[in-house]
DNA sequence: GTCTATAATTTGATAGAC
DNA sequence: GTCTATCAAATTATAGAC
């Protein structure tokens, strides 16, 4: 049978979504290009037509997810003026993200990006995590947050939330992560509130 | 020149320490048995004499580090009776561990063990992390800790500390991790104290 | 733009001498 | 217990027809 020519953009998307699924499930190194080919039901040639290498697929995924996470975090912070509300909003957005797109969040939180993208910064030095620290620093400046090392304050408040997301993605949370939202925000905030 | 026969235990240790170094540096999949051979300056045959497979090396490392972390955590908790002191003691021990043996801690915190040890539990379900939750649960029962979901309380207190260890291992902490000890314990405790 | 076929390497692992 | 030599399979990537 003749191969049905598909729209080019669709194939590219298919490769990316298939790769994300497999990378999240087994990790980058345990996923071969053959695995992607098989799962997506396309040919090796097609994959290499759209991407230079397996690494380029991971890079495209990484760039995309980082820009999406940055947008989500930035928008969440911009929705409010009070520091506590900014923090709640960010955590809400992250929890929502991790429920609506668990594969992407899994790839963000669990993948050792530097193992296959050597020039990638540690995830905690990327823009979304910087934004969280900036919110805390502004909160300290305005007197809403205690005089703490911003690194410590971030670690407790957002680190606690991130930890919950890890647990959720590992499948060891008894309830949906959204149900922990209020408690984690209130508990974390109590730690750092002025 | 004739190969100098070494004590068997020494070779085994050498293989393990070399593998730990490489696994921590590049990850399990990015490290080949050839890499281990080259780094340890021994032969392939010697490696396969001591271990059945590359996987068996990782398993041995994993079992060892888990039992050491369990001992450290258990001992730290047993040194005190008050919940806050137990928590401080555990975090102190973990920080010390991560400074005295950063490679092992890196392997614990960063490695995606389930990628290469399919039957391994998520790291947060292992004994050391269970112990931390048990301390919190006992603290709630005794009235030292507020009536919180123990998962949330653990995430904020110990998750904050674990987050700092991640930052330290990623090399983005400006000061030695030990200098953050007091602040992270006091801040985390404030979140969950009754 | 998609395909099949295959090249070039590298991988984990084994055999057998010493 | 350590070594060298080697295997079979899998890997990433390319070539070239359609």
Q: What proportion of the residues of chain A is helical, as a percent range? A: over 70%
How many helices of chain A?
Answer: 10
Q: Which stretches of chain A are low in confidence, meaning pLDDT under 50 for 5 or more residues running?
A: 1-6
Which strand-content bin applies to the residues of chain A?
A: under 5%
Number of strands of chain A: 0
List the helices and strands of chain A in order.
Answer: HHHHHHHHHH
Indicate the structural class of chain A.
mainly alpha
Mean pLDDT score of chain A: 93
Determine Rg of chain A (CA atoms, Å): 19 Å
Distance between the termini of chain A: 70 Å
Q: Strand count, sense and closure of the main sheet of chain A?
A: none
User: Which oligomeric form is depicted?
Assistant: homodimer
Coarse morphology of chain A: elongated
Query: Which chain pair has the greatest contact?
Result: A-B, 41 and 41 residues
Concise overview:
2 copies of one chain form a homodimer. The first copy, chain A, has helices spanning 8-26, 33-40, 44-50, 54-78, 83-100, 102-110, 113-116, 127-141, 150-169, 181-192. Chain A is mainly α and 194 residues long.
């Amino acid at each position: 049978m003749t191969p049905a020519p598909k729209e080019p953009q669709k194939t590219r998307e298919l490769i990316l979504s298939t790769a994300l699924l497999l990378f999240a499930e087994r990790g980058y190194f345990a996923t071969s290009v053959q695995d992607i080919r098989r799962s997506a039901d396309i040919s090796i040639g097609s994959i290499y037509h759209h991407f230079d290498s397996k690494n380029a697929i991971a890079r495209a995924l990484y760039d995309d997810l980082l820009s999406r996470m940055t947008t989500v975090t930035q928008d969440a912070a911009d929705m409010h003026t009070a520091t506590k509300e900014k923090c709640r909003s960010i955590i809400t957005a992250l929890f929502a993200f991790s429920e609506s797109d668990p594969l992407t969040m899994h790839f963000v939180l669990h993948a050792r990006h530097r193992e296959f993208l050597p020039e990638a910064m540690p995830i905690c030095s990327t823009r979304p995590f910087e934004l969280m620290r900036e919110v805390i620093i502004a909160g300290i400046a305005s007197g809403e947050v205690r005089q703490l090392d911003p690194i410590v304050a971030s670690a407790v408040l957002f680190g606690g939330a991130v930890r919950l997301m890890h647990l959720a993605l590992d499948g060891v949370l008894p309830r949906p992560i959204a149900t922990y939202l209020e408690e984690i925000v209130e508990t974390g905030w109590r730690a750092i509130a002025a």
